[in-house]
């Protein structure tokens, strides 16, 4: 079976990069469209039709709030997760604690503060005890994502919230008045995991519509009533003065619908994706036994639809090109970093040898993925890897040596 | 003729608030839709389909650049004009000069700098000589909008650019190395006036899609190659590192199409709107001779589709409600301020007496406005004003007294 010989249309189009972008769900698009066309009014305008649109924005806010177990007035809609993360960090001036595999926007924000960066193990999991050790008396913010978008590990945010609560109690006891907050970027998690803020025990939470079959450039930051947000942009005073600019009505309405659908489908879809992921993993391992799978072993600690695989000594960028000829779209890491084709900071942080990191693919499944897609992708990926192995003249033993024992942990 | 008695559907729906929000043009919506659904890929992802989307973003950037006579790499797409204005002001640290009737976002940004606020006359026009006097040796930014969205005056930006150039030449001569830039928010102007950056002589220009029949929360900041922009948000490094976050592909593509249409239709549509505006003005004056019209007399100095009218002693908010019963949607000023129902800073700045300012309506016409709409609105507005005059027991003479001679300038 050959896949996509040159000048030949691929037999199938298989998209395996849902962590980079999701299509807008048709129900979400349907909810959005009226606000582009007939319901286009400015929500701040004074007449009834505009007030109705304002009500629709507030209803969407209420929906999102209900789905995360929060008060509507504690939500700030933003132009995506990056802005929401920036807004969270702008709420504090003092020391911050982050882990080493956070999204680039969180690391960049942390870079504008005094900070401690907590290391992670080979599975990417942040150790709550390490967070506890990193917290100083002047630490004001701890930021740990709910799930990592590259290797799929789900962080023990609840456990870390207990660490933060303990420090808060200590400060109260000691009469210290420096606040400490826990922020979590749940952009990559919201499609698969509960994002109830009380259950998570967070003070700030970032969500993104673009990762849950909603529109791009729509996000939200939830902040508990204890947190005083500081604006990044100034103007007309929308979003409680925290985020000025005429509201993205269609985007906000679409976001609410997308989160509703994500919450409704989470359980069933999670099980389906976990099954497909196993099918993909087993299919690939059967064909390329030297393949290394990264991420937590426990299914409870990983995103159901994400499989991170590495082929030592094989260049991922060449695999991407071979696979696109076969109609299979795969990622090599977070899209932002991928475009610059450098080794991902996540793989560096978990200590993966460079020769393995450079041969890594992030395969993410989503609502459109079928068993047939997975089976087709298994063959296409295995073919591409074997062809590359033959081209560079490597074999399983050489690959194992390059992997430096990584796959045997 | 009665308009919209209670519990009776209005005979016609007439929208006269195009300066607050425009519907998305069907052609723009058509251009956007594929990027929500089938072409949803992340422009930073490494495979061909995603690179095509990235090319589409760059093509849109090229289109916008061409239409404003600029280099594509000098454009930064933002989530609207407010963010673009904030980005412009973040480029400088020193003293700034603004005029008193700028959009709230510009005034708020100026508030974070040492500043001089130039007064304007009763017609709202900024005097270039006054700008020259306001510039200090440490002034780094002058910001004057191209057209005001409330009273419709078109500012002499070209003339002000000569003032800035003169100061720049003086500094060069004197061996001073403080830069000075001219920024113009052209959000309200782009539908009606040329926004060629070279002709205007600006260094920074803000545009908004939401005012030219494009989507909300999509804007652009153009900055000449001399200006070094500083990011407001940090992250994946999109938009040349200046504005991180996965691109709003649909929004950017829609923006480019909207600006194309605006430029194509500008001349003809401007003449049509100017004619309708005169019809509206004359119709209203014939029925309510005590009505005061604000804004420059010269058609060259005002937006063609905007008519600002005031009725002394009559509460605009009551007119808005009466008019919405008649199916006519009108604004009372900038939508942001309107929602807080306070007297607009623009009317305060031009020295309009409070009794007149509180009875002000901003009527803005757009692509959907017909002669029939205007004739219907004339009757509805005149009816509403006369009913309010009767209710509060005022007459033309009393109104003239309250206006304090404003209308007779």
From TrEMBL, chains A, B:
Its required cofactor(s), as named, are: pyridoxal 5'-phosphate
**Swiss-Prot/TrEMBL catalytic activity:** (sulfur carrier)-H + L-cysteine = (sulfur carrier)-SH + L-alanine
The reply on keyword Transferase is: yes
Domain annotation Aminotransferase class V: ranges? 14-376
Q: Keyword Transferase on this protein?
A: yes
Q: InterPro entries annotated for this entry?
A: Aminotrans_V_dom (IPR000192), Cysteine_dSase (IPR016454), PyrdxlP-dep_Trfase (IPR015424), PyrdxlP-dep_Trfase_major (IPR015421), PyrdxlP-dep_Trfase_small (IPR015422)
- UniProt keyword annotations, A-Z: Iron, Iron-sulfur, Metal-binding, Pyridoxal phosphate, Transferase
Q: Which family does it belong to?
A: Belongs to the class-V pyridoxal-phosphate-dependent aminotransferase family. NifS/IscS subfamily.
The identity of this protein, by name, is: Cysteine desulfurase
This chain's source organism reads Thermophilibacter gallinarum
